[in-house]
């Protein structure tokens, strides 16, 4: 039941965020897996100065994150963003990595973070699937 209800709630929330909030798909900024890899590996100090970290955020449910995720990504399930967004307060760049191309959860989280006032939010083009296809490291639970 929870696996059916969660996607429905994400859809409804995405719809509501997109309607009337001033945040739309036009506000989203995308990065390729290779661009994201450079940001994760080298940080973004050259862009934003010392003390600015790049965070890769996986918005999927914890059970999905535990099965496999981008190496170095932190898990903040979309449904818990309202109580865990403080973890991103010191972020220079936030990269949201969903499951696959045009992942509605990743898009919804990117929009929600922009709505909360985070300014340097990027969405990973292709998500976990694109990252894996680009040959970037993924951590899996065997």
Descriptive notes:
This protein is α/β, with parallel strands linked by helices and 142 residues long. It has helices at 2-18, 33-42, 45-48, 62-67, 81-84, 104-115, 127-133; strands spanning 30-31, 53-58, 68-70, 74-75, 91-96, 121-124, 138-140. Helices cover 42% and strands 18% of the residues. It starts with a helix and ends with a strand. The protein has one domain: Oxidized Rhodanese, domain 1. The strands form 2 sheets. It has a 5-stranded parallel β-sheet. Strands 3-7 form a two-stranded antiparallel ribbon.
Question: Which keywords apply here?
Answer:
142 residues, alpha/beta, Oxidized Rhodanese, domain 1, 5-stranded parallel sheet, 7 strands
